[in-house]
Amino acid sequence: MIVLAVESSCDETSVSISKDGKNVLSNVVYSQIELHQSFGGVVPEIASREHIKRITFIFDKAFEEAGVSKDEIDLVAVTKGPGLIGSLLVGINAAKAFAFAYDVPLIGVHHLAGHIYANQIEGEMEFPLVALVVSGGHTELILMKDHFEFEKLGETHDDAVGEAYDKVARVLGLGYPGGPIIDKLAKEGSPEYPMPRIRTEGAYDFSYSGLKSHVINFLNRQKMRNEPVNEKNMAASFQKAAIRHLIAQSENAVKDFGAKMFIVAGGVAANSHLREEVDKKFTHVKVSVPPFKYCTDNAAMMGIAAYYQYQKTKTADLMSLNGYSRLKLA
Prior knowledge:
The protein is α/β, with parallel strands linked by helices. The chain contains ten helices and ten strands.
């Protein structure tokens, strides 16, 4: 089965062609990050306009790199949510047009399912598994007992970890996106600033507003006292506390549910300190973290997820498929 997949949930325009839920024949990604950096975040109107400008070119390039013809496509997949509604609709309408023109079934895929299935591209899932999903505004722990069976164990009560990274980077004047910048600075610093240990009532839940507020308040006090802050040490201190919380809650879930495998999914999976801590702490189970190129938004992961979703459901939805800014995975 050859799957054409489209991803346009935020500020990446991506089209991929994959085969049999494993072989990625092409994965073309156009990132708008430079356009949004001066605004300190993604501007929805700009994002959707850029998708419209680029998507036809991205389609053509994906077919060129894959070396397949349009008549060979067996299934069209597209991200249906969650995401920026304007951006989502560009991809959905492009996917619908292709599916209608070539009389191919169309399937809408949850964005977070795509991030989870990025781990299937160069590996093999073993069930039951626990997935730590750290993508954009999401920080969740998901239990899977089989393909496309998702049970949410816990989620953030307030800010997602990625949002906390962006906010801390902003108040430090480091720029956008905050995650890669703080990760890079942290390698050059030492975690010398005291940080609160995050606690939640649920053993699998998360909370980042307190940590974020602690950093902001500390920086404000230092500024009022006219005392300098070592940015590298602050980055290292914040990152250590943020990742420690992710690891602790994940360890609880893996232990309590007897998971054979632990996977990390989403853009924050690219964080070097998180990768190091996962390798260090989860030596008793199989571990999977996607290659860097599959951590951020891309259509390849959506195509792989769509293959397994279609095998499970055998359903397609050309006419009624819509985009959703908010959408539960489980």
